[in-house]
Specification:
This protein is mainly α. It has one domain (3-67). The chain is built from 3 helices and 2 strands; from the N terminus they run αααββ. Strands 1-2 form a two-stranded antiparallel sheet. β1 and β2 (65-67) form a beta hairpin. α2 (23-29) packs across α3 (35-44).
């Protein structure tokens, strides 16, 4: 699992990341990553992504993301 994914899961466990989040929420809860990373990482790892990347997130109807447990 990537270091950013570890940071995201840790932030969720601490309560620093809401159950439904946007890239800006991840940026606030997990600072220190390259700015473009926050906008690219979430969609890249969506359930059903075309690149075959490990799915860690699902997109909600309102455009937010949720962790897949």
């Amino acid at each position: 699992m990537s270091h950013l994914m570890n940071d995201i899961r840790s932030a969720a466990r601490r309560g620093d990341l809401p159950a439904r989040f946007r890239p800006a929420d991840v940026r606030a809860a997990c600072p220190g990553w390259a700015e473009q990373t926050y906008g690219v990482f979430l969609p890249k790892h969506l359930r059903g992504n075309p690149g075959g990347y490990t799915a860690h997130f699902e997109r909600n109807e309102d455009g937010t993301y949720s962790l897949i447990n």
